[in-house]
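S., here's the first fold you wanted:
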Amino acid sequence: MLTLILNIVLLVIGAGGSIVSSLALNNPRARRWFIIGFGLMGALGLVLTIITYENTPDVPHIGEALADLKQFISSFGHTHLWIWTFLCLVVGLATGAYIVRFLPKREYKDKTAPSVKEWLDPLAAIETYADPQLRAQRDSDRKKSESLKVQIDLLNQKFNDEVQQLHSGQPPTTIQNWSQS
């Protein structure tokens, strides 16, 4: 009698937990798993209640039907050995096809590489992401290089003028300055 009461309690917990989970949980995935879990508990409680119910005289019991079914399957399996291979194959395929629905779909993501939202031209990327000290150093070096370019251009112009004076027969101005000093 105690087992019957415990099985009924398990049945009530399963059904009640399933109902409460369906009403209280916001996450649909968690709700589904809790409903399935509590539903299985309720079904297990129902099956245990039916199996362990007391036998009354002259009333067929589910345990006798299960024993007869077990005897039939055992005798059929002994006479037809190929059926076990076929049965295991079918059960495995069915389980594999059904369990794929519950596995999470995951995509491969390379977590080391940054995700690029938009491509920047090199100058904009430097201005956006480079170290401020390095940018200041770059700007000062650019100013120095520009002044050096101006000096080089002036020196090239003087050189070209002196070469022009040599071709025209006049002594260069720098040589005249040296001779006077």
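And the second, which I think is the more interesting of the pair:
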Amino acid sequence: MECITENGIRYYITPEGRFPSVTSILSLLPKPGLENWRTILGKEADKIAAERAVVGSVCHYRILSRYTIRLIEPPKVFLPWKDPEKWLKELNMRAEICEILWDELSIDLEPLYVEHTLISRKHRFAGTLDLLAEIDGENVIIDLKTSKEIWKEYELQLAAYTIMCEENGINVDYGMIVKLHPFNDVESDIIKLDKKRLDKRGKEFLDLVVMFYEKEKSAGKL
């Protein structure tokens, strides 16, 4: 599905019109910790954030590619301020750490959907989930994260994917956020969200959808 980015907002082009992405809607959330970090580091913060984003994309690509024969588009990895040879070496190292952390978790799963794009016609948003898999006879929606902390917005993101799955006839029994942190303090973790918690976060996410469209309307974009 085609995507465009306008003023930092990512839209999916659907037969019903352009729908904002889940992550763009989540950008409405205040992030005081991140803002303070950017204030302290200044322009260097943008470089660090971009580097971490590339590492995350490469880790996703390496792990998710294991579970599908469909070609997943490889991420763009080159950054103008990084030496290509050294950067590729570092990326490969970080990705290998992520793969080791993933393997150590020993999650026995049967993939159902990998890098799968969904839309909510009812609520007019779209997104691409990492992985929906069967684990011990239950459908589990899995989101991979390479950050050090598990933030509330990750739960909202998982809930948004659940809303889209169920609207499209795909049952979700529970959610799982898998943290694979491949940096200095290497660590992994699994946070499980039962259906009750997903439903609660889903209602919070839909409130953000309403806010997003109100903002679009006030800006004359609707």
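Why I say that: Residues 171 and 191 are 20 Å apart (CA to CA). The chain has one domain: 3-218.

Talk tomorrow,
H.
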